[in-house]
Amino acid sequence: MDIKELYQEIVLDHGKNPRNKNKCVGFNKDAKGHNPLCGDKVHVYLKLDNNKKVEDISFEGEGCAISMASASIMTETIKGKEFNVAKKILEHFLNMLKEGSKLGINSLSEDQNTTMMSLSGVKRFPMRVKCATLAWHTFIHAAEDKNETVNTEK
Amino acid sequence: MDTKVIKSKFPIFKNKINGKPLIYLDSANSSQKPKTVIDRISKFYSKEFSNIGRSVHSLAVTATNRFEETRDLVKKFINAKSTEEIIFTKNATEAINLVASTYGEKFINKGDEILITELEHHANYVPWHFIRQRKGAIIKFAQCNEKGEVDIDEIKKLISNKTKIIAITHLSNVTGAIMPVKKIVDLANKKKIPVLVDGCQGAPHLKIDMQELGCDFYAISCHKMYGPTGVGVLYAKKKWLDVLPPYQGGGGMIEEVKKDQITFPGSPTKYEAGTLQTAEVVGFSESLKFIQDVGIKNIMQHEKEILEYGLNEIKKNNSVRVIGDPKDRGSIISFTIKGIHPHDIATILDEDGVAIRAGHHCCQILHEKMGIAASARASLGVYNSKSDIDVLSNAIKKCNKVFNT
């Protein structure tokens, strides 16, 4: 396998030009995530409406290309989705990173599916799975009003 | 130095990493082990093993002798005055904790000052932080300059009548700066302040002579000296070991135990509670022999040559920024590449069999000072060659290519 399968064009693009990297207007939930071994840090801002739909989501932070790309891709993918659907997407995403399985989620457009799949190369790099999942776990914390910082080492 | 011959003594280099020859540039983290060290541990377990210092049977005598012979080798290697000054610990971290805890308990009080530097590894800060919390002491940080070194005047400026100990690294594990330990000790002696030296990076790469340095405490990490993990050494002047309290309590470190009173023997026994990592200590004797066989002066000269070549080569790449530019530098090149996070660098390099470290290298304070969250670090050992550096340079170019920078 070539290193380009980890650093696919889509990943590099999101890593260099992350989407929704700001503090979104009117957010009503937020949470921080930290990977103390790498120093990756994210802060996820979330606007959930009364029906628990993700009206808006954004993030701030710094870290490696994988962590930034994953955060960026996450915001694009789950904006507009019900929280429960977003959780399902995360579940499939984790399976893809750990088991190498396909995503198989009907609610994703073909584009979204391709974008998410661009992170599938992470599977071969177990040390980097934490980089790819940090923002996602932080999103769950924000949505579920957990106060403590997500810490990949706890 | 013929690094092909040196490499042939280390079995790990027979392995391929991702289909490529291993280019090991992570010796500041932990060094690889020569076959003699690996074999010594195996031989000890196969032929000589027993617990030491407790039983009277033949194996116990043999094992005890091998263990104590290693202590004697260490004493000679670092030119300590006596074997009483050599304490085996589980690592250098424990050696520093031992001093912070016992010296701190006895001599550091509220408002007293502990002087360290911004270059310190967390292992030479966190133990002092505990004392700060426990005793209400103050930690003062000698600042490092833009070259990544700490000027002696900076230390001089911070010494006060309240300074109770100075704890400094011998060689920075990030910038490679070699501290003027001798000058600092001379300065401290005038005020009767003891000096602890974190020798994790010093001992594998520099000639260390306790009589010449004159420091009160010196912490050594054996696994960074081509030795086994699980072994550290604390050198301490006997005058301190005579007055400091024991560190951990347990078997082996007592003289007499009564229901209402316990007495303790002298050093090193007082500080070696419980069964130690016996086989690893014995294995460490072969690490010292390896270093002596190659010759520490030869090692220093060789590493200096590779370091200079390495700095020169990677500076040719305009996207690379080398961290620090100390006048006196040892075997470490920390760097960043514009637009590429150190963890991405490390992953891409690994594909070419190049092992480096990425992160803050347990020096968050220094990284914050340098204005970066993390860096990539290539660190040298006796086995590294110029061609290792060439592979590194090419792998860095590959990072540029992957990230299009």
How does this model look, in words?
The complex is a heterodimer of chains A (154) and B (405). Chain A is α+β, with helices and mostly antiparallel strands. Chain A has one domain (3-144): Sufe protein. Chain: A (Alpha-Beta Complex), CATH 3.90.1010.10. Helix content of chain A is 40%, strand content 18%. Chain A has helices at 9-16, 65-78, 83-99, 110-117, 129-143, and strands spanning 29-35, 40-48, 54-62, 150-151. Chain A has a four-stranded mixed β-sheet with strand order 3-2-1-4, with helices on one face. In chain A, a hairpin with a 5-residue loop joins strand 2 (40-48) and strand 3 (54-62). In chain A, helix 1 (9-16) packs across helix 2 and helix 2 packs across helix 5. The radius of gyration of chain A is 14 Å and the shape is globular. Chain B has 405 residues and is of the alpha/beta class. Chain B has two domains: 3-30 and 295-403, Aspartate Aminotransferase, domain 1 (Alpha-Beta Complex), CATH 3.90.1150.10; 38-292, 3-Layer(aba) Sandwich (Aspartate Aminotransferase, domain 2), CATH 3.40.640. Chain B is built from 15 helices and 17 strands. Chain B has helices spanning 3-8, 35-48, 58-78, 92-107, 126-135, 152-158, 181-190, 202-205, 210-213, 238-243, 278-294, 296-315, 342-351, 364-370, 386-403, and strands spanning 16-17, 20-21, 23-24, 86-89, 113-117, 138-142, 163-169, 195-198, 217-221, 232-236, 256-257, 262-263, 320-322, 332-337, 354-355, 357-359, 375-379. In chain B, strands 4-10-9-8-7-5-6 form a seven-stranded mixed β-sheet, sandwiched between helices. In chain B, helix 2 (35-48) packs antiparallel against helix 11 and helix 13 crosses helix 15 (386-403). The longest helix of chain B is centred in the first third of the chain and has 21 residues, at 58-78. Chain B is globular and about 75 Å long. The mean pLDDT of chain B is 97. The interface between A and B is medium-sized, with 20 and 18 residues.
